[in-house]
## 1
Amino acid sequence: MSAIIELSGISKQFPGVRALDNVEFSVEPGETHALMGENGAGKSTLIKVMTGALQPDGGTIRLAGKEIRPESPGAARAAGIGAVYQEVNLIPTMSVTKNLTLGRLPRKFGLIDWSAARAIAKAKLARLGVDIDVERPVGSYSVAIQQLIAIARALEDDARVLVLDEPTASLDANETERLFEIIRDLKARGLGIVFISHFIDQVYRISDRITVLRNGRRVAVGTVEEIPSLKLVSLMIGRELEHVEHQRPSTETVTSSKPILTAKSVGRRRLLEPFELDLRPGEVVGLAGLLGSGRTETAKLVFGAIRHDSGEIAIDGHPSSSHSPKSSLMAGITFCPEDRKSEGIVPELSVRENIILALQSKRGWLHLLSRKEQERLTAEMIAALNIATPDAEKPVGQLSGGNQQKVLLARSLVSNPRVLILDEPTRGIDVGAHAEIVTLIRQLAAKGMALLVASSELDELLTVSHRIEVMRDRRMVGEISGAEATREKIIQTIAAAS
Amino acid sequence: MSTPTPGTPASPKPAAEQAQPSALKALLRHRLVWPILALVLVLIVDAIISPGFFQIRIVQGRLFGNLIDILYRGMPPAMIALGMAVVISTKGIDLSVGSIIAVTGAVMAWRIHEGDSHYVILLTALCVGLACGLWNGFLVSVLEIQPIIATLILMVSGRGIGLMINLLYGGTNPSFTSPLLQGLSTGNLGLVPTRLVVGAVMIVLVWLLVRRTAFGLFLESVGGNAKSAWLSGVSSRLILLSAYLISGLMTAVAAIILTADTHTSDPVTSGLYSELDAILAVVIGGGSLAGGRIYLDGTIIGVLVIQALTTSILTSGLPPEYNLVVKAVVVLIVLLLQSANTRAAVVSLLARRKG
């Protein structure tokens, strides 16, 4: 069978980095081809070359046997290559119709023919089995529906290739299943699908073949049977994965010590039911629950980023009267938010400035850390957390996601906290960094820090937690101690509560 | 509609760019290169069209010459622009600076008329600037009104308030004399105009505050990502409020110099369009209206570019009617040179020529 799209000998050089080095990649009609690699392996660059967002320095792209050189995403789409990215590229305030027909609105007597436009929008969605009110603004729909609208927009009538870049990152299990059905349906119609995801189990559920990139080179290609998951992971990170999973931390060391932070029936109306929580030195408390169960809110409330309107938070036994990020920081409590981009990093500021920010605000504006001190602390953190950056003055916005996450951790750690609150510390980062962060959490606890870790990944929680608090519908529904915690037990606890 | 374009081998351009020695590129990428280049260019044109432009003489015990004149006239705009740079670094903008000049000037003339001590008036003027800054800062940081709208309120009402203050004692554009204030504005200390000394002191104070305390880091973190700064323990509200207070205070300094210079309170025209020159100076100096960075050196150079331009148009003998248009054209060129796209094009053009 001949490939529907075939990239051969693709190279792309960026200043200082060879992003792609003579890469081969092809997709056959009716095939889902997963493109795997760590952050910085060259996945995004390859996708951008394929969709015309970047011009390659060398190599050819053939679409159904004919050589093409897409100059822009628009040209690529017109040629039959559609792409949907993780961050949905729709205009949230505009209607579904406008989003789907923008740029090629049907006209009648020189005026826009809105009823024809609506029909086009409906037809585009119908191909994906979606039936929604096309007059409502896109922003009023859930992320899952928005994703489907974005796919509908990417698919021209004669589309032959669809690129899906982390399409499931913000979808729950049901929504993911629905997306997979649509992918299977598109496959059946002969489209070639390029699938990028860091959820390895999803890759195996939906893909036929896998191409693995590392440092801009293709290191492997094969069917899913030829590349089992353990091999895949070691291909991606270039070394054998040490088996960190499910080595439970021992529990006996910590239960006796006095808590640093105590939450007594703390809650906030319409947001979070009152809950009890103790954070003890040397102990990792996990927050488990489904999307929207209140994990993030709990973490933020404990930190003071959300004000509680009932109950009391005490630090070292003293009630904290005005609990805020600033007061928490002063008491030695730091927080790494889930949403790196909007709440975490300050993108224009350098790695150094981002790392010292919390420590500096703890010291106050008058006591500026000397430049030498700043550089020393930054160098220490870059070495300790293995942050990949050419130098400490690089704007953080230019680092990869995993390294941004490490910079955030460094910002917390450099202020020498007693309590560290982590919300989704490993979201969207690559396998290598993931393992490093898990190891780090354990080391910190072993040194006597109290940690609160909210995560949607149960395996991660099981690996690090001494105790897991289970959330459901904005309520803490159960506590499972480390020894007896299993995946099944957590799921049962979520299911049993009602 | 889906005809694939026939392919050609990839161009070797990036390889050539790679081979280029990086010293020139590094220099071209330095953020101060274009503003300084613009300033040098304006001065070179001056040297060509009016011989003796660079002459500095000592007349009646004080320095005289076009270069001194540029600094002299550039001092009040520099004060305003520095305050503006602080506000812009927080992702804000202060449109009310022109009106703050009007209000401050009106209060000064009124209190002089009432017979206050001129030292008290000096303090009063600074307090008026701070009060205006407090108002703006309150709207922006506490009520969370968008800065452009929040400061528009004082921009519109300020000149009216100035006129009303004039009415308090029946004066229309009342004139006054004050040895102290006029000494600060138009006098000289030894050879040097006093206002240049005042300006230098203020510049050093702002620089100390921004670069020798953590205030600069907090400003930039609030401007770059306010939520993140807040979660890192930075009191975003207080930082925002301080930014507008500083803008108000710096504008009051400019207002004292300008009002003492004209000997009168003229709320309708004093400081007119000064907000635009200040914003322009910040932008020429490399600042972005999206916030997140503050460049004091760039801002000062920006002020000098604008002032040098104005002075050279006046000395060139070009009819003053051309002033604004020529200024606009030159500013456009500077901004074009600064845009990342044009810059990349220039850099690659140079690289190609060399390689």
## 2
Amino acid sequence: MNLHAVKSIYYFEMARAWRTLFQSLISPVISTCLYFIVFGSAIGSRINDIDGVSYGAFIVPGLIMLSLLTESISNASFGIYLPRFTGTIYEVLSAPVSHVEITIGYVGAAASKSVVLGCIILATAGLFVPIEIAHPLWMLAFMILTAVSFSLFGFIIGIWADGFERLQIIPLVIVTPLAFLGGTFYSIDMLPPMWRTITLFNPVVYLVSGFRWSFYENADVDVALSLAMIGLFLTACMITVSWIFKTGYRLKP
Amino acid sequence: MDDAISIRQLSKRYDSGFEALKHVDLDIRRGEIFALLGPNGAGKTTLIGCVCGIVRPTGGTIVVNGHDAATAYRQTRAEIGLVPQELTTDAFETVWNTVTFSRGLFGKPRDDAHIRRTLESLSLLDKRDDRIMSLSGGMKRRLLIAKALSHEPSILFLDEPTAGVDVELRQEMWRIVRELRRAGVTIILTTHYIEEAEEMADRVGVINHGELILVEEKTELMHKLGKKQMSLELTEQLQSIPDALNRYQLELIDDGNVLVYTYDTHGARTGITPLLQELNEAGIRFRDIHTTQSTLEDIFVSLVKSPP
């Protein structure tokens, strides 16, 4: 294991986030605050409690998940796309590092950033609504698992993308709708039966549901199923990444 | 086992079907400067890419310091430093950070003293806290060398180190390369500037259409293929070459003011003495003589033009 290399990539990526602190941390925090003000305080005050949880508090896990998903994807995809775009990727490819090490460095850094961001958003949310966390360890586990899975997904997008437009398109066209329709702002029990069934095909439902369970112990779907779905997604991403490195897809001609 | 790199039957066919390398065999001796010459698109960069792990070969083997580049890539790549053709850098990073990053990436523990020395030898030490985007093109080129040397490689690839570089900088680059060789680093450089190979290389390889058409000691090559020309400036204009001198295959240029004789330096007899004698007998007087040796460039052009 070339630990020096993993550390180098990891610190390099973290340093990049530090340089671009504003967009890395501040802007997601601001947008989350806006959600809280609009949905939590303004509209939320007119909405009944859901399963005994005030609406403002109810949306906290969903909002964190929303940020976690989008930030993991954008961090990781940008992290690997940028060196491809500038050409500095040659150095990583010519270094004595294995595919696993490259992935750990880039994905690890992206996931770390997302988790830090998630914690900051959680703290920010605490300013607006009282939050209790029933299973803090599970909450952290869900957070990390989601961050890692979607950072891997972002890593794949960053390798697949051959232009800045493509880098944006998947998060914009697929992930944001899935996140919004995945029970971020509502319990899927509130939906008519047909839509409820359709929603069950949305993977984000399982993430949000499991995450919300770790806060308030109520979930739309079984927690075990949530974990299984994240595991499935993680495995699918890992298989894709290993295929990428094996075939050299868009990395090595 | 005295070769730094040993390449056997190396082939690369891109997905498009283009054959960039066709069964290339090449041995790079330890400690030498090897110049790989070839026109654009000849396969120089692909060859380097294959050795460094950036391009996946479709056939053949590469052995670096006794290790197979495919199976023991950790050992082989740790031995190699690569300076790419393009000035690819992270614009927002500082000089110091990017060189430190390179060292770590190649699996070496942090060593500030070495990084300092490297930057110093490349006249970059006073720029260490500057962002790369603020550097000039020449500094960026030196920075890429510093990055490539950060992990103390024994083999250095320089892909067109002086492409688009001014004369002064080119000479500085040559000085740097010579210093590295003195330090025991094996250097492989690609170039399409012949003078560069002529100036620096111990051996020259010529690649064209993915095939290595020649590998030779530079001096040997120039000796072997070197033609010399003797130009005679005539005192009186000559209308035509006298038939008696036909066997010398002379050329009359400059409106009949200069007579050119091409001869092979390698030949046992150059034919200069009899020629001068016969000219004298024919009453042709000349006021000046000078000789020129064909450059590597002429040799190169003749090699690349002629079908393999």
## 3
Amino acid sequence: MSGQAALRRDVAIVSWASFETPSEPARNEVEMLLPVVQEALGKVGLTQQDIGFTVSGSSDYLQGFPFAFVGALDAVGAWPPIRESHVEMDGAFALYEAVNVLQEEGIDTALVYAFARPSRGEVDRTLALQLDPYYVAPLWPDARGLAALQAQAMKDSGRFGDVPDLPPTYVADGCVAVVLAVGDRARELTKTPAWIRGIDHRIEPPSLGVRDLTTSPSTIAAGDAAGAAGADAAWLHVPYPHQELVLREALGLSGATVDSAAGPVMVGGLERLAAAAAGIAAGKARRAVAHATSGPCLQQNLVAVLEGVAQ
Amino acid sequence: MSEPVTIVETPIKLDFSYTPGVASSRFLRSLEKGKIVGQRCPKCKKVYMPPRGACSMCGVATDEELILSGKGTVCTFCVTRIPTPGLDAPYVSAWIRLDGADITSMFLIQECDPEEVRLGMRVEAVWVDEADREPNLGNIKYFRPTGEPDADYDTYKDYV
């Protein structure tokens, strides 16, 4: 890996499962998540007791009550007590934490999951609460409106040719679970581990006014550090279509196969990592980039590079 | 020089359409009919009331439903001597283990002197009139003593 210290221990994605629907009418978050977690663990013959570290990504603001992420632990079974963590972000950023925890001797497996049911609320408004609480959030700029500023800036720059029209914010309910394992443990669990050869994430300033929304310096920096150059396929997390143009440019993906998807908010990024691992396992890619974003107008970006062969 | 700004008010309001989930919906609908539904974990056999569709200790779905009797045992309690809106002081809140359930739930205890409430006391649910029931736990107004002999300490010692 370039740009950042190499991982001391090789980490691979060994299993995954996901679920997505436009609107989950009856089941709550735990009921939606439980079969997906069981499927991901079951595919590699593990139970929660075999997992060394568990971490989730979600937002209590979408569910509408505090510490909702703690209730979601019902879906994994936290007894005897487990080593567990949570990020109020897309699950991809929870996976980043897991990769780091797996550098510790004695922790060889990790479960990462993400879930959301934004169909139950007003996601365009809810996302305004991640903005600067003094000067921006009180104006309630909706998520789509901010994305429109970015699309307009791209049109005005003249660099992108046709900039796609802005669709409504993608709303779907769903969840994803990913199992990670290190070194020989990963080889025991599956014949087709997707090794994480590099992973990095970077963030840009919270103030939209100081950013050039037509570029993504955080993606460029994360891609450099993760070693994204030379990938033959990329799975990009693209909440709004115009953002794919910025990401392709930032990652230098000319010649690579690109698969873009939005996915449910908080879930879509981790789903991209799972999809890239599936691509590696199926032999569709030799060196795959997986990307995840969070925040307004691609504020935070994570880039991972996956390969079928360990370093 | 103008006064420094010390406070800004930024009201926040979001609307949600709340869905309690499959297990909780069945529980709430059963309360409308005057029945308390619990769910048993297929692995550790613990019975949850209210049911949440999953065993939080085992991480498995709880599919088996059972009707609980509405009688229970006081496992621990508190006498509050400050009035609260809708409740005159003193009033008694208690953690009650319903017969057949493996977790306790908090209810009021009425129709007895607060000084008489004790660990192991046997109590039963008092329901609101059938015509006034809604799908929520408010259908149980409170618990009252049954007059049965106190439960043996061993039956509730893990819940004190």
## 4
Amino acid sequence: MVPRMNTDVSQTIDKSLEPISFSKREKYLEWYRLDNAATLFTFVNSKRITCLFRISSELKSPINVANLQKALDNIMGRFPYYHVNLRTGLFWHYWEKNALSPKLMSDSKYPQQKLSITKKGIFPFRVRAFRNRIAVEFHHCITDGTGALTFLRALVGEYLHLQGKEVKDWLDIFRPNQMPEREEYEDGFKKNYRSTVPDPEKIVPSFHLPNKLEQKGIYHYTIGIVPVKEILKIAKKHNITLTDYLTAVYLYALQSMIFDYPKQLRKRMLKPIRLMVPVNLRRIYPSKTMRNFSLYVTPGINPKLGEHSFEEIIEIVYHYMRSEVTDKVINQQIARNVRGELNPIVKHIPLVVKKRFGKTLYNGFGEYLYSGVITNLGRVVMPEALQEEITDFQFFPAPSPVTKTGCAVVSYKDKLYINWARNIKEPIVEKYFFRKLVKEGLPVRIETN
Amino acid sequence: MTYCPRCGVEVEANKIKCPLCNTTLQPLDEEKPDYKSKYPDDVPTEEQKPPKEKKKKRLLAFEITSVVLVSPIIISITTNLIIDQTVTWSLYPTATLLLAWFMISAPLLFTKNIIAIAFGEFIPLLIFFLVIDIIDNGTLNWYVRVALPIIFSIGVAGFIIAFGTLKSKNKGLNIPAFILFGASIICLIVDVCVTSYINSALGLGWSLYVLVPAVLTGGFLLYLHFRVTRNKDLKRRLQP
């Protein structure tokens, strides 16, 4: 039997907000502020920097569109913080309750194209379907990978439930009959901000691929599928985690690519190779937030010092990760970002002016400092009764005109999906990366869009 | 199962070439499974406009400028002829618009030739003021003593600033410093010319008030450029 659906947003979150006074609660339901990380993403939203990342799930049977739309309608009440529209204020953007309900979209050959988030009635995400696949594309200004995955798991779970699958244990999957908790709304950055912590040290711009960008809107996928057990065995052999191992392979691939260029061309490319590796802060600071709560660390090597062996790179990544992924170091990034937002002068600068500076800030602190991005969403677990119905989960990074390629990793059941996305024609980094994995003795299957 | 012999990876059954290295793959004898593409075959919705060549863009700008400026010239001359049956006051707007046309066209037509641009800006100015002086009462009054030296000083200072900026290896605060020095020289010459013309004797007036702060500020900017900005890590560089 289908459980009672709570589709009315205000009704659904009513009980969860009992400690708040009536007047405050009404205000809380109608609108809320953007989190610290989100602000910058709204400034740079464009056809080139779409800030959209994607998580998809392939099912065993073709999608029943009517049921999927119904499932989406049902779960929206459980995610009231995503049932919003970005509005423009005098000093800041803010989220306002969206009067419409999100509609399904068909998928396209080149996904993750620009979403005009400031338009009235637009949701900060898309739900797409094609053949057996359900995909969500979330704008980074509303949430990070963890929030989007929670949403997709709830959507797939509810869809399969409507398709007649009986599930006894729903694990941690959000169900339409549950009440959202107040902590899911919280801005984790502001909660953990300490004003006395100093800024992190500045880093210099890194090596970037010299390849020419494709037309706006074209986004190529290269998906590498590897058995989880075997890759974990190899990572364990090197005594490092899976993320560390893949980061080392990525750095090694970029270095090999640079050293394969003719000497004259190579000279200009000998800049530090640095990767952006997002860290899920919910693992460091206990938080239930469904909004952005991740920052990054930047392991790297300097090819000017000479060609590093793979073992040397593994050592560098291992020690870097141990020393940098700590609350003390991450606190510095939180302090720098939140301090900027709380500055009374910054607060009172009109949004139009802030936007201009925001772009410069994004370039200065953002992608010019990295040669690529690798993000690991971890293992996706679904209730046992649904596992047979789901073939895979895949995760794709947002496009960047600076790093040009990016890698997002996720595992489901016995397979690891290493998903590369690029806005250049040549799969140059992918080639070096997967060839290295094959050399390490791993069987790799490649799929593309 | 199809494998790429160079990359060692397994690829999708329908692929003719390896998606990583573009190597042509050996077709398998075994029957291919019924393959369905995982993504639709549509093209991006928003096509990018083909980039226009720079030269074409410049010529288009020149054409638009010409059309925009010629129209008011024709209108003013025609109006003058209809009302007065002769060309009198319309010479002023005509001369001014022609000057604007020459000055806009020079950088559009001679982009890379700085000397041609400089002459394209400078000579029309000389002719313009000559014409304006003559239109007045048919003789030369202020042109030689006021207009000529001022135009020369502006031309020379502008040329030096532009040339210095283009040739400067480290562009920074030195550029506003050069501009300040150039502006000071122009002010000095304008002051000398105008004061001498009015008083019929050589003399200096207001320009000193401009000259002193401008030269001091320019000097400070040059100091910042060469000592501080260029050597960001001064402490580190000077450590024993």
